[in-house]
Write a structure and sequence with these properties.
about 0% strand; about 75% helix; 13 helices; about 300 residues; globular; mainly alpha
């Protein structure tokens, strides 16, 4: 079961990478990243409501506090918004590297709140993944370029993106085990949808959503890069720990680099290739099974 969970999380990361690349194309064409985020939430909630209506509501597997479901939904909205907002104000390398410190935040939460001491396997995979993402995004070149200017608000947004992603993984792990993947994603996106309705009501006219040429792209983003990957990721969270899923999710920037190489003809430097190898190594390490004793007694005595 764990193996299928890792595969689901990896597939979600690949779809998110494709979605990020396509969303960047739409933004370059004049679409609002905020309205793209809103529309993905609204369409996801609507489609899943229809699916649940047709299939019938499944019984919950356990109980979960409503506040945790709300937190899950807010973290979905927050992670999407703050990540794209940070990209608009920071070098991509910094925004991506900060975003993918989220698995480390999950490990820290597990150690402090759940008194679950991380194994050497997790720590090694985490270090390899974060360094790999930094090299993939060419962070060393950006930092040593001599032309670096860090926008304070952009840095705050990128840190918020990391915390939102971490919160999404931690809360999603609990919600998914109680409600299942479909029930969790449905409720989470319903919460996010309500939040975005309030935001858009304040903003006024949604120009992107009223432009017909963006409609096919919005539909693609909603179905192929939102509904499918979120269901896969949350389904994976039912089977693997949140910090393991977070480390596997670093496949997203690796996939984005490969897509840029294949589709856009962008070259991959030796540093980026090394970073990609480190991410692959991290994903391999995290899937190595712990000894049974470690699973039972893991935690601070």
């Amino acid at each position: 079961m764990k193996r299928t969970g890792y595969v689901a999380v990896a597939a979600a990361a690949v779809l998110w990478a494709a979605g990020g690349a396509y969303a960047s194309h739409l933004i370059h064409e004049g679409a609002s990243f905020l309205e793209l985020t809103e529309s993905r939430a609204w369409i996801t909630a609507l489609v899943l409501l229809v699916v649940v209506g047709l299939r019938g509501r499944s019984a919950p597997r356990g109980r979960v506090h409503p506040a945790l479901v709300v937190l899950f939904g807010i973290s979905i909205a927050g992670a999407n918004f703050t990540y794209y907002a940070s990209l608009s104000r920071l070098p991509v390398a910094i925004a991506i590297t900060v975003q993918y410190t989220a698995p480390g935040l999950v490990v820290l939460w597990s150690a402090l709140a759940e008194r679950h001491r991380p194994s050497g396997r997790v720590v090694a995979a985490l270090i390899a993944a974060v360094i790999g993402v930094a090299l993939l995004s060419e962070l060393p070149s950006v930092l040593t370029s001599g032309h670096l200017r860090v926008d304070a608000l952009g840095l705050v947004l990128s840190v918020a993106a990391a915390f939102s992603f971490a919160t999404y993984m931690v809360s999603g792990e609990y919600v998914a085990k109680a409600l299942g993947a479909q029930g969790s994603v449905l409720r989470g996106f319903c919460v996010a949808s309500v939040l975005w309705m309030v935001v858009q009501a304040v903003r006024g006219r949604p120009d992107t959503l009223l432009t017909p040429r963006f409609w096919p792209g919005i539909a693609f983003l909603a179905v192929a890069t939102t509904i499918a990957p979120f269901l896969l990721f949350v389904w994976g969270l039912e089977r693997v720990r949140a910090h393991d899923a977070g480390i596997v999710s670093t496949l997203e920037p690796l996939t984005a680099a490969v897509l840029a190489f294949v589709w856009l003809g962008q070259s991959l430097s030796p540093v980026q290739i090394l970073g990609g190898l480190l991410v692959v190594v991290a994903i391999g390490i995290v899937q190595v099974e712990r000894p049974v004793r470690d699973e039972v007694t893991g935690g601070v005595g």
